[in-house]
Every structure is written in C-alpha cells, then in structure tokens.
Amino acid sequence: MARIAKISIRNFRAIRSFDWSPRPGFNCLLGSGDSGKSSVLEAIAWCLSANVNRSATDADFYKLDLEIPIEISLTLIDLPERLLAFEPFGPYHRGFNHDTDEVEDEPGPGLEIAFSVTLRIDWTMQGRWSLDTDRIVVEAERHAMALRMLRRLSLLQLQGDNASQLTFGRGSVLFNLADDQLELNGALASAARAARDAFGGAANAQLKDTLERVHQIAGHLGINAAANAVASLDASQVTLRPGNVVLQDHLSIPLTRLGLGSSRLLIAGLQQEAKAGADIGLVDELESGLEPHRIVRLLQTLGAKSSDPTFQVFATTHSPVVVRELSVDQLVRVQNVDGIVKMPPMDAVSSLQGTLRSYPEAFLSTSVIVCEGAGEVGLIRGLDLHRIDKGKYSLSAYGTALVNAGGCDNILACAEAFHSLGYRVAILRDDDKQPHADHENALVAGGCLLAKWPQGYALEHAVFLGLPGSHGLAVVRHAIELYGLEAIEDQVRNQLPNGSAFDFELSELIGVLDDAERQACAKAAMSRSKSWFKKRGIGVMETIAYEVIGPALEDCEPWMKDEISKLFEWAADA
Fold it and tell me: Residue 416, class by beta-carbon neighbours within 10 Å (0-12 exposed, 13-18 middle, 19+ buried)?
C-alpha cells in the first residue's frame, strides 16, 4: 500500500513552513494547542482527497495573507501495481532516496519509484492538484493525471462525522469490505419503484378530493396531461444509491448514529478486513469518546502494536493513555515558532522510553521539572497543593509536569532529553552528590533552570536546616506517626554527640529543635536503610510539604525560600 515519505506545507492555517519525513506505520503528533497538529492532518486530507469542489476560506491562509498561496506537497512511495504501470503513469514517476529523504525528478538506481503531488490554492479559493515533474510541462496534463492517480488511493479518515463510512457508498469501508460481485443498483432501483407505488396507493386515497379539484381545473384549462393526474414520489428525485444502504442494530437504529468513539473503533476494525484496505489513515484526537481500555483496542486495530503495520496512520492526541501505549519512535512532538513547524525525533534519545511509561503526562506539557528523586517530586507536589489552597495557579495550569529522574546519575540525561525535544526544562537536585559539572553548565547555558540546595545538602538537610526549629519538630511528628516513637528516638540519638540528652515523649513534642538536633534529625532522616521521606515514595514528602513546609515557607532560610520560589516563578513565565 502506498505511504507518504515526505510532506511539505506552506502558508496553511497556523503553518507558515513545514517539512517532515514521516515513518511507515503509526505516527502520533503531540504538542500544545494551536501548534498545528490538526492542520497537518487536514493538509494531508486536502491533498489526497482529489475533491475538485473543495474551496478554502480566508482563514485557511497563514495570517489571512491571500497574496501567498497555500501549497501542500506529498511524496508517495511503496506504490501499488496499479500506480507502477508505465502506461499511463510512467512519465510522472520520480525517484526517492531513502538515505537522504530527497526526491529526484527521474527514477534511477538506488531510488524508489515515487509520485509527488501538490495541491495549490490561491486567492480564488479553488484548489488545483498537480503531479510534480520537470518532464511534463503542460499544466493541464499534470492536473488531470494527479486526479487520476489520487482516485486510485484509499484514504481512511476518522475525523469528525464518520457516518458515511458505515454506508455502502463508493469508497466507504463497507464498500471495500463487500464481495466483488456485490451489485446494489438493480435492487435499489426496484426498491425506489416500490416506494413510489406504495406511496402513491396510500396518498391517492387520502388526497381524493384534492385530486378531483386538480382534474376539474386542468380540464377547464385544456391541460390534458393533468386531467387524470395522480400523486406519487418524484421519479427524478427519489433515487436510491449504495450510500443510502446502512447497517442498523436490532432496534432498527442505523449504526451511523453510533457515538464518535464506538464508530471509530468499528470502522477501524472493518478496515482490517476490507478487501481493498486504506493506504493512509487520519485520526484527529484519537482518544475522543473512548474509555482507556477501548483506546488500547483502537490502537491495536490501527496497527500501532504491530511489527509489520498494514497501512500508514497519522494521529493526534492529548491523552496520557495513548502516549503510554506507544513507543518513542511512534511519537512526534510538534513545535511551532512563528509559523515554522519542526518535529525533532523523539527516538533519538534512547533513555526516554522508561520515562514515557512512568510519566506520559510530561510529554503533553510545555514545561518539565526534572527532579532528582521521589522526595523532590513529593516536595513540589505538596507545595503546589498549598499554593492552590491560597488561590494561586497550579503547575498544571501553567502546563508544567514533574518527572522523577531516579537519582543524580540520571538527572542530566533526562533533562537533556526533554530539552532536545523543545520542552522548557528545570532541574531540582540535591547537592550531597553532584552530577558532571560541564554537562550541567552546558544545559544551564542552553536555557535550563537549575535549582539545588547548598553545597553538600540533601533534601533532608534542606527540610531540617531550612525550616525554623519549631516547624522541624512538626516534621518529626510525621515521622513518629509513620515509624513509631522508639524507632525515631533511637535514630536521632545515634546522630547526636555522646552524652546529649534527647527525649521525644509525645506529650513533650513542643518547643524548638536546636542546631545540633536539627543536624541529627537530618542525618537520621536520610539513612539509606531507614529513610524517613523516601521509604514510602512520593506521598510522605508531599504531605510534609503541604502541611508544614508550605505554610512556613516565608519563615524558612533565604536559600531554601529562593530555590523553591524560582521554580514556581519559572513555571509561571511559560
């Protein structure tokens, strides 16, 4: 089946310039609103539809500039036999170089036979298709051959109203699924005649008085053709076509009335079995109308899970479920800067697949805070909840997501991966262990934000040495609730100088931790075997940040307040 090897779009809606070499199989577009994802799918549909009656509006031109025409060009390869024949298509064949993704005007050794078709729309608002070649100079011939070629392609669109796909109209998935010998026209003509006869028999009895008056008037006027007129359906208007034949359920309700999600899923399933399957599929907002388990079914049906997909699909999504189910080589992030649209390959960074499974929502954001570990994720989440309580915007409202890098050794690679894909990136890390300085400095110089604790400090140091002593005691209370009084007392005493008195009797958990006790609590809390904050994942630190650190932030040490504040200010600047 034919597939698109190269796409070029100029001056179409939000896109001033766009060039892309999509993959075979499944291509899913991510990106912020108004980045041009749906416009890419619509451009493909316009170029491959061969609808000579299609007209544009001023709003379809980039920035409403009618002086610059819309141009959509597609290069097609893997051509079926019906398009490889020298007659009549040979003079329009071109050569595609897989190594360079370039198109040469003539086929040759090492090149795959290709077609290049361009749709051009100028101020007249009428589209004109053309097969691109330097060997044929007569525009009318290139236009006629473009339409002839496009009629031999099959495009499956799961966008908007899918009702026509669930009829037996020409080109529908049911038409393609039907047996070669299916012939509906004779039966439909007979059904139309029967409908006229049945209507006429019932209507003439009900309209008897009216018809007699018509006969009298026609007789007086000498109009013999109307002197014996009867009521019937208009034979010139009542014509049944295959497109009028639909599937229906047991209540005789047409399946064209199915919900959006169900109709998409059914059409995709039928498409798999069709005798002449689609070459290219288009699915805008793939998750629309579907529960998570049915999203997975639709992806499977469209070939997203197949190692040898049967046709090429272009889809858009805003769903973490879709992102999690796909691999990095099937996802493409759309970036639009002043109308210039780019799509950096996500599979260029091998480390992203694990992050894709764990934090799919991060790939749907515009900004990412890469945290060293679960404790830092919990800290920012808890502070974010406290800010929301105070009437401030949430991080999600700013389009910011949190990602756990899984340790100091991974944090810079994770940050660089997101940064290379065009995301705004901030880094939050401890300083008891430092990553590679030159690598980190390069990321900061490239636009990443770095937030970290003072030299040698881990998160536990930040909590107990950054908070006022009275609030540090509140953190200890949380630890006692989780791990028990005796365990916490023993751990803290082990970190105090010999002979120091320290008693955490519940009735006496009031007052202020002194400097030595704050240091001892920090060391006890970060014990690898008995970590207070990390042993139970994100939730413990989130609760402490929400209940203790957030309310006390204005009273914290300046270095702690400054590092936290700049992260939220950075998110708000998106």
Answer: buried
Q: At residue 27, what are phi and psi to the nearest 5 degrees? A: -125, 110
Cβ–Cβ < 8 Å for 429, 452: yes
Residues 270 and 359: their CA atoms lie apart, in Å, by 33
Strand segments, DSSP code E, in 348-411 are 367-371, 400-404
**Cα separation of 271 and 154, whole Å?**
11
The CA distance from 391 to 77, in Å, is 55
d(CA 369, CA 457) in angstroms, rounded, equals 20
CB atoms within 10 A of CB 77: 20
Measured distance CA(441)–CA(421) in Å, rounded: 19
Separation of CA 48 from chain center: 22
Cβ neighbours of residue 139 closer than 8 Å, sequence gap 6 or more: 130
Residue 182 token pair: 């299916």
Nearest by Cα to 155 from 64, 54, 41, 243: 41
Burial environment of residue 191 by CB neighbours within 10 A (0 to 12, 13 to 18, 19 or more): middle
Strands 15-20 and 340-342 come out as parallel
DSSP strand pairing (70-77 vs 112-121): antiparallel
Among 272, 330, 327, smallest CA distance to 298 is for: 272
Token code pair at residue 94: 């071109």
Does residue 235 surpass a pLDDT of 80? no
State the pLDDT at residue 547: 94
pLDDT at 47 over 80: yes
Task: Name the token pair of 269.
Answer: 């399933």
> What is the radius of gyration, based on Cα positions, of the chain?
34
Among candidate residues 53, 282, 296, 74, the one with its CA nearest the CA of residue 165: 282
Cis peptide before 88 (omega within 30 of 0): yes
Better-predicted residue by pLDDT, 264 or 69: 69
Q: Are 302 and 269 in contact (CB under 8 A)?
A: no
CB-based burial label for 533 (10 Å; 0-12, 13-18, 19+) = buried
Percentage of residues of the chain with pLDDT beyond 90: 47
pLDDT one-digit tens code per residue, 266-296: 666 666 655 456 788 888 888 888 888 888 8
Distance CA 233, CA 193 (A): 9
Dihedral in degrees, nearest 10, Cα atoms 81, 86, 88, 90? 110
Q: Taking each helix axis as running N to C, give the angle between helix 185-206 and helix 208-221, from 0 to 180 degrees, rounded to the nearest 10.
A: 90
First to last CA, the chain: 43
Judge contact between 132 and 117, C-beta under 8 A: yes
Q: Is 24 left (phi over 0), alpha (psi -120 to 50) or beta?
A: beta
